[in-house]
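Hi W., the phosphoric acid mono(formamide)ester complex you wanted:
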Amino acid sequence: MPLQDFHDLADLSTEQVNALLALASRLQQHPEPRALDGKVLALLFMSPSLRTLASFQAAMTRLGGGAFVISPDMSIHGLESRPGIVMDGMAAEHIREAVPVIASYGDAIGIRAFAERRNLDDDLADREYNEMRGLVSAPLINMESAIQHPCQSLADWKTLNELGVPQNGGKFVLSWAYHPRALPLAVPAATLKMAAMRGMDVTVLRPEGFELPAAIMQQAGSLAEASGGSIRETDDRAEAMTGAQVIYAKSWSSTAHYGDKLGDEKLRRGKEDWCVTEDWFGKAAEDCRFMHCLPVRRGVVVADHVLDGPRSVVIQEAQNRMYAQMAVLHHMLAGGAA
Ligand code: CP
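Structure:
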């Protein structure tokens, strides 16, 4: 039975993930330009994108189908998403009508809606995305919500396989990085779960106050237990990086001051040295790789010499978004093995 709702990589078994990855590699090596002949993918972007927007359109075109994009900044009537609102402001259309209408034009729909970052419990429950999810009966792909980014994780798993990073026993560091603004938790949460599912020994490296939410750490811990991997957390950079085969850098909001802009700003002030430079790799494996989902701020999150150097695999990760999504689309709409 094909997947109907690609939402959280952890909803899939390792066998299903491996089948999707095999399909992604097959489609990369042996293109199937007629596989989705006549199929249409609807893409609703409530939040901005470069890679997700372009890679989904490219994926559909490469499989012989088509895609259309809707976003609030287009010439549409203004989209309201708050439940129970009296719509006497600028927005003339509510997602309650817009989402099912957009979905009805496609054979599948992808939706992106970033975290509101006002209330941690709401974002952990993916409240806004789940409201839209409840309005869709077509096959649905999460293109990043408050706490999920399954397409990024599937692509990153593919990249790790291509790099030969061991499934079990591979040493993976997920590191907080400095950024002038508080960013969502979706990528670190999804990356942590992906690395745990893959059976790696994962260290979350972060300064005090930037611990990932307990619910995410617990879910990742259970996934690691099932796969034979492990999860630990530290603020000791040298210890975390010892023997590391991969460092995945990402900034995220302070969970201690979630939704509190001033509190978060105060906490991150002075942490500009959480910018990945070659010095970080002193005790790492010689060929330790640098990963990031992009977009990335040069000289803030990572130094140019790392991003432009041989450790960096960020372009490979971004390209793999397209192949991973081709596999998901092929599986959902043409019954490709998974
Ligand atoms: N990594 C990622 O999702 O990139 P975009 O935000 O550009 O889509």
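Residues 49-52, 144, 152, 293-295 surround phosphoric acid mono(formamide)ester (CB under 6 Å).

W.
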